[in-house]
């Protein structure tokens, strides 16, 4: 569970989060945020042991099909319906260092835009061979990959006619709990990205572009699956070299 | 011109949405057979050291209604104040205690529950001891970026009085939003997203 460059676990506090790069809590265009957004200022504090440390998960956690959404819910010999894709990339921190041993969990709608969830009311059909969840852990170089089908777009109750562009949800653990992140990946070339009230909670256009995975032609597998490349950046850590810490901290 | 620092930007957060359970607690969502158990459902085993406690609460919106689609994660030290993490260099944490738990709020009552142990005290960076506390992280539909807060223990008044984070809260009446009352072995920690009782959330 350590950096390639340095096998000693790091204990520095994390860079201050750039809150202007993220969506603010209150984004009235995304109606549910109105009653769920804190209104008072956050209490800002340099990270302590509670944030510098965090849970890590071993590769032994993973089942053989955990990173294969085409097959991990399918009946033996069958597979999920949809356009076969590979999603791969690296988990880095803000310093550009690879984050090894990072647990990624992902979930998504099926090819028709339908989630397997009791609260889901969209009339598109369920795929009996598609569950919609998967997970993997990055290697020493921060890389990860999984196989799935390209999810469909779907309508949602917000405005009268709001649709989510095709997307995959990601939950990411770094090495410290302060790095904990949930985000979404979008697909290059989708005109619906810019119409989505959830996407546009993010104020900066280049920040949104950071969530759009390009088609990766070089890694496309001929006669099998196209590849999309999605790099994820977690908060970086300060070096502790010149920090004053009491003995034993 | 000067040299480029070369730092990357953190990937922007996006809401966990209403279907976060599919990815994070699929068994809870009825998607069985993919993972053996939902991650974070169990934090302790029979050999874990320390006092067994239950932490229970709700996440309440600005209209006073508990969220029934939120996901709550906690992270804490073991009974001796050590974290089960490679970045813990002061000592070795109890191998029978993970320190990390995950629980969706109930679809009917909005209640989350963790069976855990009472944490010990860990040092603040200047060497002072922090009061025992549990780090809490909340995501849900309508929450654009995960909310960090902390739960402290009402029966630790003395430690709470000297805790460096609690000391930083300017409006002293808000300290109470982070202190969970105890009844038997159960601590109740209701998290208020907005309003007069809004919980102190952290930029940490
Ligand atoms: Fe979604």
Task: Characterise this structure.
The complex is a heterodimer of chains A (249) and B (204). Chain A has two helices and twelve strands. Chain A is mainly beta and 249 residues long. Chain A has a single domain (54-232), classed as Aromatic compound dioxygenase (Protocatechuate 3,4-Dioxygenase, subunit A), CATH 2.60.130. In chain A, the strands form three sheets. In chain A, strands 4-3-8-9-10 form a five-stranded mixed sheet, with no helix packed on it. The longest helix of chain A is centred in the C-terminal third of the chain and has 5 residues, at 205-209. In chain B, β5 (133-139) and β6 (147-153) form a beta hairpin. The longest helix of chain B is centred in the N-terminal third of the chain and has 5 residues, at 20-24. The model of chain B has no long low-confidence stretch (mean pLDDT 97). Chains A and B meet through β1, α1, β3, β9 and β12 of A and α1, β2, β5, β6 and β11 of B. β1 of chain A pairs parallel with β11 (202-203) of chain B. Fe (ii) ion binds at residues 164, 167, 169 of chain A. Fe (ii) ion (FE2) is lined by residues 164, 167, 169 of chain A.
Features:
heterodimer; A: mainly beta; Protocatechuate 3,4-Dioxygenase, subunit A; four-stranded mixed β-sheet; 23% strand; disordered N terminus; B: mainly beta; 11 strands; 7% helix
Note the topology.
The complex is a heterodimer of chains A (249) and B (204).
Chain A: E1 43-44, H1 49-52, E2 84-93, E3 103-107, E4 133-137, E5 143-149, E6 154-156, E7 162-164, E8 167-172, E9 181-187, H2 205-209, E10 212-213, E11 226-229, E12 232-234
Parallel strand pairs in A: 2-11, 2-12, 9-10
Antiparallel strand pairs in A: 2-5, 3-4, 3-8, 6-7, 8-9
Chain B: H1 20-24, E1 52-60, E2 71-76, E3 100-104, E4 111-117, E5 133-139, E6 147-153, H2 157-161, H3 164-167, E7 179-180, E8 182-183, E9 186-188, E10 191-192, E11 202-203
The complex binds fe (ii) ion.
């Amino acid at each position: 569970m350590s950096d390639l460059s340095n096998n000693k676990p790091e204990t520095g506090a994390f860079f201050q989060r750039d809150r202007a790069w993220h969506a603010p809590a209150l984004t009235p265009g995304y109606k549910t945020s109105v009653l769920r957004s804190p209104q008072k200022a956050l209490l800002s504090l340099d990270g302590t042991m509670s944030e510098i440390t965090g849970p890590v998960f071993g590769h032994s956690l993973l089942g053989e099909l955990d990173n294969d959404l085409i097959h991990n819910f399918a009946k033996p010999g069958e597979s999920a319906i949809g356009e076969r894709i590979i999603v791969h990339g690296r988990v880095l921190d803000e310093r550009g260092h690879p984050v090894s041993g990072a647990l990624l969990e992902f979930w998504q709608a099926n090819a028709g835009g339908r989630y397997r969830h009791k609260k889901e009311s969209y009339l598109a059909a369920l795929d009996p061979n598609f569950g919609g969840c998967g997970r993997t852990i990055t290697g020493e170089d921060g890389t990860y990959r999984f196989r799935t089908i390209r999810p469909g777009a779907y309508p949602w109750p917000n405005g009268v006619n709001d649709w989510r562009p095709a997307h995959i949800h990601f939950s990411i653990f770094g090495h410290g709990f302060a790095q904990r992140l949930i985000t979404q990946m979008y697909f290059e070339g989708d005109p619906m990205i810019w119409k989505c009230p959830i996407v546009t909670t993010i104020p900066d256009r280049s920040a949104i572009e950071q969530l759009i995975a390009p088609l990766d032609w070089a890694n496309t597998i001929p006669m099998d699956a196209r590849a999309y490349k999605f790099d994820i950046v977690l908060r970086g850590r300060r070096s502790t070299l010149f920090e004053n810490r009491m003995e034993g901290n | 011109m000067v040299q480029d620092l070369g730092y990357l930007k953190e990937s922007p957060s996006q809401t966990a949405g209403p279907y976060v359970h599919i990815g994070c607690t699929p068994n809870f969502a009825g998607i069985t057979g993919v993972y053996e158990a939902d991650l974070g459902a169990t934090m302790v085993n029979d050999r874990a050291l320390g006092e067994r406690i239950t932490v229970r609460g709700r996440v309440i919106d600005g209209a006073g209604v508990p969220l029934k689609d939120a996901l709550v994660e906690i992270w804490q030290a073991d009974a001796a104040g050590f974290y089960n993490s490679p970045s813990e260099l002061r000592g070795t944490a109890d191998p029978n205690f993970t320190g990390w738990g995950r629980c969706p709020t109930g679809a009917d009552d909005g209640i989350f529950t963790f069976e855990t142990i009472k944490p010990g005290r860990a040092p603040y960076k200047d060497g002072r001891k922090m009061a025992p506390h549990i780090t809490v992280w909340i995501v849900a539909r309508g929450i654009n970026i995960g909310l960090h807060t902390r739960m402290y223990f009402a029966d630790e008044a003395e430690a709470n009085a000297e805790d460096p984070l609690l000391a930083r809260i300017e409006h002293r009446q808000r300290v109470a939003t982070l202190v969970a009352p105890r009844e038997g072995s159960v601590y109740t920690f209701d998290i208020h997203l907005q309003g007069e009782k809004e919980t102190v959330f952290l930029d940490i």
